[in-house]
Amino acid sequence: MNNPEILYMVVPCYNEQEVLRETAAQLKTKYNDLMSAGLISKDSRVVFVNDGSKDNTWSIIKELHAADPQLFSGIDLAHNSGHQNAVLAGLMTVKELCDMCITMDADLQDDIDTIDEMVKQYYEGNQVVYGVRSARDTDTFFKKFTAESFYKFMKVMGADVVYNHADFRLMSKRVLQELANFKEVNLFLRGMVPLIGFQSTKVYYERHERLAGESKYPLKKMLAFAINGITSFSTKPLKLITTLGIIMSIASILAFIWAFIAKIGGFTEHGWSSTMCSIWLIGGLQLFCLGIIGEYVGKIYAEVKQRPRYIIAEFLTDAEKKDDK
Ligand code: UDP
Ligand code: MG
């Protein structure tokens, strides 16, 4: 390769003090290998985004930057903004500095050796390279089940995502520039990137166990994430309401005919229970439908406000970039 291009990695970190040094060490080795193989430029960097951690994550990032300012940069967000926002903060910060960018979790669950293949695929002309898990053997049954149901449910509900792909992916500078035009507040990157388009491919890797620390995605957060994904990307729930409404109307017409025939036939013991049942049923359905509409109204509310999606408190970088301003 005559002109290796610049690779930036964006690594969101929330309370990752147990694992961060190891992640940095492994990334450093990987970068050195890629640089000596002539696959990436010497100007390539790793950017850690501290997402309002309550532990020593930020001081470790500062330490890493001080020890190797050529390789490690850091972004400190003013408060915890959530995984997706932290990733976006990193991407938008590096989009003019890099040629390609890989996002990866800090916990080393994503296989670092897959980076080689991603970079190769980039040189083959792919603008997006999705890291896809080939196996989930190390996940607990519960995590595997909930995560796989998540992808299936998303698809059924009309939000198209790449199956078993989380946020381990390579994007070219061009894609990042297009991503910057997506102004939505409810971020769901793995739904947004396929919408951008361009030539893309998948690389497969085995997902490891979290090296240290614990998952920041308990079931409650994962459910919220799924609901956010569906309501941000699909109006299928709204269409389901219409379908439900039509089915209910047909059913009630049939019930009406049945009641009418029963009345003519003279066997009309209209009971209290059937009245109560229908009141409860209709009441429940109405509440359910209102709830779904409420989800969308809530989103419109958030979008209309157009609040900044993250606030960067500090950007550690090496001197040469400072004269850009
Ligand atoms: N993370 C973040 N902000 C948050 C929660 C998580 O930046 O509010 C980061 C976290 O440090 C990790 C990545 O997002 O690098 C994925 O989180 P985690 O590994 O806990 O999720 P899991 O892999 O268990 O789904
Ligand atoms: Mg993880």
UniProtKB/TrEMBL annotation:
Signal peptide (UniProt feature, chain positions): none
Statement: the UniProt record of this protein carries the keyword Transferase: yes
Domain (Glycosyltransferase 2-like): residue spans on this chain: 10-179
Compartment list: Membrane
Membrane-spanning residues: 240-261, 273-297
Molecular function as annotated in GO: glycosyltransferase activity
InterPro entries, per the entry: Glyco_trans_2-like, Glycosyltransferase_2, Nucleotide-diphossugar_trans
Membrane topology of the entry: Multi-pass membrane protein
GO-annotated cellular components: plasma membrane
Alphabetical keyword list: Glycosyltransferase, Membrane, Transferase, Transmembrane, Transmembrane helix
SUPFAM superfamilies the record matches: Nucleotide-diphospho-sugar transferases (SSF53448)
Keyword Glycosyltransferase among UniProt keywords: yes
PANTHER family, per the entry: PROPHAGE BACTOPRENOL GLUCOSYL TRANSFERASE HOMOLOG, UNDECAPRENYL-PHOSPHATE 4-DEOXY-4-FORMAMIDO-L-ARABINOSE TRANSFERASE-RELATED
Protein name in UniProt: Glycosyltransferase involved in cell wall biosynthesis
Species of origin: Ruminococcus flavefaciens
Lineage: Bacteria, Bacillati, Bacillota, Clostridia, Eubacteriales
